[in-house]
C-alpha cells in the first residue's frame, strides 16, 4: 500500500506541472515518432521494390541487347545512314535451346517499328514481337481483353496488347479494345490491355531500363515478317539505324535454387560470340531481390542508430529536468524522510516520474508516428500532383509507407528503458539527501 501511495504521489506531481512534463518528454515523443515514420517509409519502399522485381519473375534470367559504346559514338557522328549491328542473335537463341534443355521456358522478344501513333498522338516505339508464354513467365496480368495466342502467331495476325500507360495516353475517353493504331506505317488492332506494372518508371522498370507500362506486344512472327531486323529513328534531319535480331530473351529456371547456376551457364554460352558481353546484358531478378533485402538490412541498422541517438538526447533531457527537480524539491524530500520515508521510497518516487514521462512520451510518439506515416503516404503524393509542385519534379514520384510492428515495439521499449536508466541518477541523488540539511533548504 505504501508503494502504491508513492506511485500515486509521483503521478500527481507530474500532473501539477503538465507543461514541464510535456516538454521533458518531447525528445522521447519526437524520437519515437521519427523512428516509426522513417522505418515505415523504408519498409514501404522496400516492399514496392520487391513486388516490382518479383513481377519480372524470381526464376527468370533476362538477356538484353545493349548498344556498345563504340556504336553509340558512331551513331552520333556526322555519318548519315549508319546502321549499328549488335546484340543477341538467332544463333544465340539456338544455342540456348540446345544447351539449356532443362530450362522451363525460353522466350524471345524482338523490337519492331520506330514509332506508334493514334490519330494525332505519337510516341517513340517500345514495340516487341513475342510469344504467348511471356505472359506466364513475366507474370503480366490483363486489365482488359486477352493476351497473344498461338493462333495469332500462326496467322501472323496484326494484333497488339498494349501497356497501361499507352492505353491511358492514346485512349483517354474511348474504349481501346478493338481500336486500331499504327506501328510505323502498319495498322494493328488492340486485343488486350495490361495491368499497371509497378509504378511508372519505377523500380519494376529499373532492371530493363524502360517503363514496362509503355510496351506494346505483337506476335513475334508478325514482327519478323513485317519489320525485319533493322529499325531506323529520325533525329533532327538525320537518322540512326539499329540492326538487332533479338532484343531480349527470358530464360526460366526450373526453381529458385537453380537460378544462379542457370545464369552462369547462360553467360558461358553467350561468351562464345559476345566477347566480354559488351553488347549483351544479363539481368537476374533473384539477385536484385537479395540486393534489395541486404540494402534494407543496412538501412534498418542506420535507422536504429539514428533512433538510439535521438532517444539518448531525449533521455538526457529527462535527466536534466529531474536533476533540477531534485534541487527544487529538496525541502519536500527532507519532510518525507523525516516522516519515515526510506531512501528506496524516494528512489521509487523519482523512477515513477521518469518512467511515466518516458512511457507517456513513447505512447504519444507511437500515435504521432503511425498517423504521420499514413499522412506521408497520402498527403505528399497529393501535394506533388498540384501545379505548384508538379512543374518542379519531372515524372511520377510515388511514395508508399508501411508501419511495422517491430518498429513500434522496439521504439517504445527503448523509450521506456531510456527513461528509467536516465532517471536512476537523479533518483539516487535525491535519496542521498541528508534529511536535516534538506529541511533547512530554502
Question: Which terms summarize this structure?
Answer:
442 residues; alpha+beta; 2 domains; 12-stranded mixed beta sheet; 3-stranded mixed beta sheet; 15 strands
Can you describe this structure?
The chain has 442 residues and is α+β, with helices and mostly antiparallel strands. The chain folds into 2 domains: 201 residues, no CATH class; 193 residues, no CATH class. 54% of the residues lie in helices and 17% in strands. The chain contains 15 helices and 15 strands. The strands form 2 sheets. Strands 1, 3, 4, 5, 6, 7, 8, 9, 10, 11, 14 and 15 form a 12-stranded mixed beta sheet that branches. Strands 2-13-12 form a 3-stranded mixed beta sheet, with helices on one face. A hairpin with a 2-residue loop joins strand 9 and strand 10. Helix 12 packs antiparallel against helix 14. The relative contact order is 0.19. About 4% of the residues have low confidence.
The structural class is alpha+beta
- The helix content, as a percent range, equals 40-55%
* Uncertain residue ranges: 73-81, 199-206
The largest β sheet comes out as: 12 strands, mixed
Mean pLDDT: 80
Number of strands: 15
Total count of helical runs of at least 4 residues: 15
The ordered string of helix (H) and strand (E) elements is HHEHEHEEEEHEHEHEEEHEEEHEHHHHHH
How many domains, as an integer? 2
Gross geometry: elongated
